[in-house]
UniProtKB/TrEMBL annotation:
Name by which UniProt lists this protein: Undecaprenyl-diphosphatase
Keywords: Antibiotic resistance, Cell membrane, Cell shape, Cell wall biogenesis/degradation, Hydrolase, Membrane, Peptidoglycan synthesis, Transmembrane, Transmembrane helix
Any single GO CC term annotated in Swiss-Prot or TrEMBL for this entry: plasma membrane
PANTHER family: UNDECAPRENYL-DIPHOSPHATASE
Cited function: Catalyzes the dephosphorylation of undecaprenyl diphosphate (UPP). Confers resistance to bacitracin.
Reactions mediated catalytically: di-trans,octa-cis-undecaprenyl diphosphate + H2O = di-trans,octa-cis-undecaprenyl phosphate + phosphate + H(+)
Miscellaneous comment in the UniProt entry for this protein: Bacitracin is thought to be involved in the inhibition of peptidoglycan synthesis by sequestering undecaprenyl diphosphate, thereby reducing the pool of lipid carrier available.
Species of the source: Alkalispirochaeta americana
Principal place of residence: membrane
Family in the record: Belongs to the UppP family.
Topology relative to the membrane: Multi-pass membrane protein
Superkingdom assignment: Bacteria
Gene that this polypeptide is encoded by: uppP
An MF annotation (GO) of this entry: undecaprenyl-diphosphatase activity
Length: 265
């Protein structure tokens, strides 16, 4: 994989990580179209780290409050106003445990090397987005409970399948479980933090193998492209969630999925 191919993959990752069209699925399709062939999954994880930085910066105030509340709890100095942040932290952990349990079953299947399965999963994501606007959730963070965390965590686990959008599926699940639009988006991206960190830990053992296939310059280019375009796409997605417009991406995913089923091998 050369420098410009890595840049292109970084742009695709940055845009599709937040726009609900499946970043992992688009990386699979782009590698097939460009004829790049098989590269270690850790390359995708490195690009995900760039978009993780975007999440940390974008939601820094909420993350700082949750971190401060957790540290005070560990030091047995909790304040009354820490209750909601501690509850939210617990729910993120609970949802992540469910995600990990499901992901550990699916991940060994190595579906990131199966473009046609990815194409079919695009159609699944399109269906999820098509019904997202029907949800009328009104529950804020103060009303989110274990049921919400279990549902969203389970759906996030299924999003390990390339073509199933993590953001699209978890936001849709959150909305239909009763969470309000604004909080559904924020909860989804808070869940992405441990998910990406976990994938990074699992795949870093293959980092040496990656160095044999991708030059440091190409990797740096892809990382920076993913970072810049990630900021732009997350800003757009937040506005679309609030406006209930996620369904528009199904208009893109349906023809893409149908094309992939017949054109990719």
């Amino acid at each position: 994989m050369n420098f410009w191919q890595s840049i292109l993959l970084g742009i695709v990752q940055g845009i599709s990580e937040f726009i609900p069209i499946s970043s992992s699925g688009h990386l699979v399709v782009m590698r097939a179209v460009l004829g790049i062939g098989e590269i270690p999954l850790v390359y995708d994880v490195v690009l995900h780290i760039a978009t993780l930085i975007v999440v940390l910066v974008f939601f820094r105030e909420r993350i700082m409050r949750m971190t401060a509340a957790l540290l005070r709890w560990c030091a047995r100095r909790s304040r009354q106003e820490d209750a909601q942040e501690l509850k939210l932290t617990f729910l993120v952990v609970l949802a992540t445990m469910v995600t990990v349990a499901i992901a550990l079953v699916i991940r060994p299947l190595e579906l990131h090397n199966e473009p046609r399965i990815t194409a079919g999963a695009f159609l699944v994501t399109a269906a999820l987005l098509a019904v997202a606007h029907l949800a009328k959730g009104r529950t804020g963070f103060d009303g989110i409970g274990r049921r919400h965390a279990l549902v969203v965590g389970a759906v996030q686990g299924l999003a390990v399948i390339p073509g199933i959008s993590r953001s699209g599926s978890t936001i849709t699940a959150a909305l239909h479980s009763g969470i309000s639009r604004e909080q559904a988006g924020e909860f989804s991206f808070l869940l992405s933090i441990p998910a990406i960190l976990g994938a990074m830990v699992l795949e870093m053992r293959h980092l040496g193998e990656l160095g044999e296939m991708v030059s440091p310059m190409a990797m740096a280019g892809g990382f920076l492209a993913s970072l810049v375009f990630g900021f732009l796409s997350l800003s757009l997605l937040v506005r679309l969630i609030q406006g209930g417009k996620l369904w528009v991406f199904s208009l893109y995913l349906v023809p893409l999925g149908l094309w992939g089923l017949f054109a990719l091998t």
